[in-house]
Amino acid sequence: MNNLFSVNSIRFIVLILIQVLVFNNINFLGYINPYPYILFIALFPIKNNRAIIILSSFLLGLTIDMFLDSGGIHAAACVFIAYVRPIILKFSFGMIYEHHTIKFSTVEFGSKLTYVILLVILHHIILFSLEIFNFSKIILVLQKTLFSSMFTILLSMIITIIFSQKPK
User: Fold this and answer.
1) Is 47 a member of any domain?
2) Residues 78-107: tens digit of each pLDDT
3) Terminal Cα distance for the chain, rounded
4) CATH code for the domain of 48
5) Enclosing domain of residue 21
6) For residue 163, which phi and psi values (nearest 5 degrees)?
7) What's the burial of 54, exposed, middle or buried (CB within 10 Å: 0-12/13-18/19+)?
8) pTM attached to this predicted model
9) Cα separation of 97 and 159, whole Å?
10) Distances (CA, A) of 46 to 30, 53, 146
């Protein structure tokens, strides 16, 4: 339990630092930004209390908001995906999720990719809808969501592949 807490605490801090110091400075074509910090929510242990992940997600988003001066939009998007995460887990992994036996290092790549895609797209739709907050600019919201999602998904999958522990 203590080791699990320390791993998640380190992941929380490292992802925030990488997001703030590296990925916030990437801005392709004026509107394409990666947000791989949501890997913290995606990789959070499934057996933990749901309130803990929602609170942790709020703190994650709030911390990013403080660095970006974005007024709580990251916190709202993070809390939303933390809240719907069980539904996405069930959709992506099926019976493995029902038995709470998911280990991200051992699941199929396709299931893992589906899971990350759904989380990222939902996060980005909420994030950019709140950022732009103008229904007449729905095309811009969808454009930013599409391109930033592609970049975030690519980076997230590369990060999970590089840092995944091989089963023994």
Assistant:
1) yes
2) 999 999 998 998 888 877 665 566 667 677
3) 20
4) 1.10.1760
5) 2-163
6) -100, 10
7) middle
8) 0.88
9) 22
10) 36, 9, 28
